[in-house]
Amino acid sequence: MKQLLLINDITANKISYYHVLLLMASLPFDMFYSHIILISFTLHTLIHLDKSRLKSLRSFKLLVLPSVLFITILATIYTINPKAAFTEWMLRIPLLLFPVVFSLNGLDLKKYRENLLMGFSLVCALTVFYLFMVVLVTIRFYHMPLRAIFSEGFTNHNFAGPINIHATFFSFQLVIAFVYFLSILIKGGASRLIKVVCIISCLILVSGMIQLSSKSILIILFVAVNVVLPLYLLNGRQRRRYILTGLLITVTGTAGILSISTFRDRYVTLLKEDISSDKTIPRNSDSRFERWRVAAARIKEKPLLGYGSGSEVSLLKDDFYNAKMYSSFLKGLNSHNQYISFMLKSGIWGLTIYLLTLIYGFKIAFKRKDVMFISFMLIIAVVSLSENILDVDKGVMFYSFFFSFFLFSVPDHETSIKEQQKPDEYLVPLATNALAVTS
After folding, report:
1. Dihedral sign of CA atoms 338, 339, 344, 348 in order
2. CA-to-CA distance for 258 and 273, rounded, in angstroms?
3. Where on the phi/psi map is residue 332: left (φ > 0), alpha (ψ -120 to 50), or beta?
4. 3-state DSSP call for residue 8?
5. Which residues contact 189 (CB under 8 A, 6 or more apart)?
6. Which of 336, 321, 223, 213 lies closest to 275, judged by CA?
7. What are the angstrom distances between the C-alpha of 425 and each of 189, 195, 368, 419, 422?
8. How far apart are CA 93 and CA 116, in angstroms?
9. Where, by residue number, does the polypeptide cross the bilayer (predicted)?
């Protein structure tokens, strides 16, 4: 408890630490909390601003991280929908705030990185546990059989409903938490208590991800767990043993999941429908492939500049109607692909900047051999194929916070090696944290 909540630092840094910890803990919940905490954190940073830290604003990071906001601002010049464009500005302001605040604040994120990730991961595990309790209470209240927990009424968006968050957006928060707990177990040297906390948390998080049934998350989880973690945290025989064990568990788990009709429909049937252009297939909504096809037709008309910020939904709404995609028209859906979205709104130049931003993140993550940062970049790159992650508040907050957090707290390569060589010393704060949580 002392390591997690009572850190040894000056008062200003303690307050900054609590702000960041609370901000991370608020991410799974209503956006009101994270926005209020961000505003408070920004004001606190300005009040305790050390003028010598203003030099840090010259960093290249301050251009890379808010690049998406800069794209939005520039593409507003020629937009066909100024009102929606300025709304997009407001939505993406955190893309500038987080890197600037982290640059100006005196808190050493590298020093408290493990504490903060532990706090976030535990909150994610506890949130999933709470959601399962809600499901069980509901089942008992309506005298339903226990197997109803796997029915459509308690999976995907319905499972995440009590905390009012999109299933996919909640899922990629759980991936970060799961990879963190698993990395602790892989590094070894953890106390028995730490291992128990990590194992229980991992089981809860995996169960939550299965229940949320986000198809894109499965790809990320497979790569992060079976490739990234063993590649950077293990060597030789241990790596081979881990990969074989991981593949065996993956195959067995996949078979078990697909044996349940709800998940089989979600992961197989709906996936086929989502990437199909066959309009004769009966479905409740239009496929993503069809939405991409309609958006691509629009992009061909203005491939260089696009139609300007905030133009996507209004443009596609008319096109969806003309294509007889009435479900997408009535719901006012976007393209559900971040790369296509940039092409549609800002053309080739906007997409190029976004891709360069992702490449920069991957470059730093791989250079530092930071499994957490690599996993985060995988989430953004893969989910961008199926969601407009930067057109939703939860997506913007996740992207802007964790991109900034990992970039400003990424440990040096030499430091990472020393930490792996001294697992006992490295895990002392974690052991204290877990003891505090369980007490």
Report:
1. positive
2. 17
3. left
4. coil
5. 423, 424, 426, 427
6. 336
7. 9, 16, 21, 8, 6
8. 23
9. 20-41, 62-80, 86-104, 116-143, 163-186, 193-210, 216-235, 242-263, 339-359, 371-390
Q: What kind and span of H or E run contains 435?
A: helix 428-438
Start-end of H helices in 259-287: 261-264, 270-274
CA distances in angstroms from 427 to 121, 128, 185, 281, 335, listed in the order given: 16, 25, 10, 54, 44
Cα separation, 134 vs 140, whole angstroms: 10
Summarised one tens digit per residue, pLDDT across range 140-150 is 999 999 999 99
Residues 6+ apart with CB under 8 A from 151: 262
Enter the pTM of the model. 0.90
b/e burial code for range 8-32 (CB count within 10 A of at least 16 → b):
ebeebbebbbebbbbbbbbbbeebe
Contact present, 67 and 16 (Cβ < 8 Å): no
pLDDT tens digits for range 380-410: 999 999 999 999 999 999 999 999 999 999 7
Q: Checking phi first, is residue 310 left (phi over 0); if not, alpha (psi -120 to 50) or beta? A: left
